[in-house]
TrEMBL record:
The lineage of its organism: Bacteria, Bacillati, Actinomycetota, Actinomycetes, Kitasatosporales. This is Family 1 glycosylhydrolase. The keyword Hydrolase applies. Keywords: Glycosidase, Hydrolase. It comes from Kitasatospora putterlickiae. InterPro entries: GH, GH_1_N_CS, Glyco_hydro_1. It comes from the Bacteria. PROSITE patterns: GLYCOSYL_HYDROL_F1_2.
Length: 412
């Protein structure tokens, strides 16, 4: 029996928005994505390079000011490995000081910082060394994590080791292709759904996560560690023979392996946007008759509730934090409608006893979405020429819950 959804946020509930370094900072020239953006050529996924992004490396104070003024109590941002360790073993004290200032700046504004240590991008030297396929990848990542202790050891309660490791694992072959390490004729991609993650990369990422947790705990035992997983929210077509078996086969390597690896962690991040329909032969294209977002995904607010339930069942006992949830749209009223539906699903899950500790919207800013600036996920618009920030109505609507502790509804 489903309980009545909650309407108010529990004491201590995290209420924020998320960003990532590469997508907002600009000028991330030492990362593996910087050359890849320029080598992809026309006709591929990469439509334009990141360039200056939102210039948040210099304007992070403006970003935090706005979030605090809007009512948010928390801010999830990432620190860039390529800035902290631009060459193997060479640690930039200036970069450490920069990110430490961000942690302190968050507190000065009444924001609790959640720090992500790896959000898709790695140093160029790490990619050239073999990336996550290198035998010492886990140790190299742990060395970086230990070096960043001055950033997170004081004033940070939550550290996310790796953002969406399942997406990194399936992007590993694409990265090899774009860096010229793979013959294009040897690559194939599905017409629907996600490619199969690399088994070697999957194992390396799980190992790297565990080594990173050990590294964080050795320097800052009080910090609660976890990682975030991209939830697929796979739905088997009802009444189709073999669809449920196909769903399980599709989901396990692309999601469940990574959820199971989080058992025993302090928390687990849920990142949900849409759903994937599964037939007897696997994933199906998005139906033609449904509303779509700017990324081409189905407008499906119920994904968040489904993702939370599946994650709770797969990693029982681990507290959950929604580290990303949002929609790419140019119509802010649809952002409000989508988010209201997603929060309704989250509230119902919490009423049923699932331990959800926080919600972070993706994203705080309209930013670089891994190949293009066209998909606008942000609560705050960013002028591409002047970098002027302009909060959208959805930002005030959602941020208000941070002050009132009352979950917003679509009509609020």
């Amino acid at each position: 029996m489903t309980s009545s959804p909650i309407t108010s946020l529990p004491e201590g509930f995290l209420w924020g928005a998320s960003t990532s370094a590469h997508q907002t900072e600009g000028g991330n020239t030492n990362s593996d994505w910087w050359p890849m953006e320029r080598a992809a050529g026309e006709g591929g996924h990469i439509k334009e390079p990141s360039g200056d992004a939102c210039d948040s490396y210099h304007r992070w104070r403006e970003d935090m000011d706005l979030l605090a003024e809007l009512g948010f109590t928390d801010y999830r941002f990432s620190i860039e490995w390529a800035r902290i360790e631009p060459e193997p073993g060479e640690i930039s004290r200036a970069a450490l000081a920069h990110y430490r200032r961000m942690v302190e700046g968050a507190h000065e504004r009444g924001l609790r910082p959640m720090v992500t240590l790896h959000h898709f991008t790695s140093p160029r030297w790490f990619a050239e060394h073999g990336g996550w396929a290198a035998p010492d990848a886990g140790e190299l990542f742990a060395r970086y994590v230990e070096a960043t202790a001055p950033v997170y050891a004081d004033g940070v309660d939550h550290v996310c080791t790796i953002n969406e490791p399942n997406m990194i694992a399936l992007m590993a072959p694409l990265l090899d292709l774009m860096l010229g390490r793979t013959d294009p004729s040897e690559m194939s991609f599905p017409t629907a759904g996600l490619p199969m993650p690399g088994e070697q990369a999957t194992e390396a990422l799980v190992r790297a996560h565990r080594l990173a947790v050990e590294a964080v705990k050795s320097r800052a035992p009080h910090v609660r560690t976890g990682w975030s997983v991209a939830n697929q929210v796979s739905h088997a077509l009802p009444g189709v023979e073999g669809a449920e078996e196909a769903r399980a086969a599709y989901l396990r390597p692309r999601e469940d392996v990574f959820l199971e690896a989080a058992r025993g962690d302090d928390w687990l991040g849920v990142q949900s946007y849409t759903r994937t329909l599964i037939g007897a032969d696997g994933p199906l294209p998005v139906p033609e008759d449904v509303e779509r977002t700017l990324t081409g995904w189905e407008f499906y607010p119920g994904a968040l509730g489904d993702a939370l339930r599946h994650t709770a069942a797969t990693a029982p006992g681990v507290p959950l934090i929604v580290t990303e949830n949002g929609i790419a749209t140019a119509d802010d009223t649809r952002r409000v409608a989508y988010t209201a539906g997603a929060l309704e699903g989250m509230a119902a899950v919490m009423a049923d006893g699932v331990d959800v500790r926080g919600y972070f919207h993706w994203s705080a800013l309209d930013n670089y979405e891994w190949g293009s600036y066209a998909p606008t996920f942000g609560l705050i618009a960013v002028d591409r020429e002047t970098f002027v920030r302009t909060p959208k109505p959805s930002a005030a609507w959602l941020g208000a819950a941070g002050r009132t502790r009352v979950l917003p509804g679509a009509g609020a």
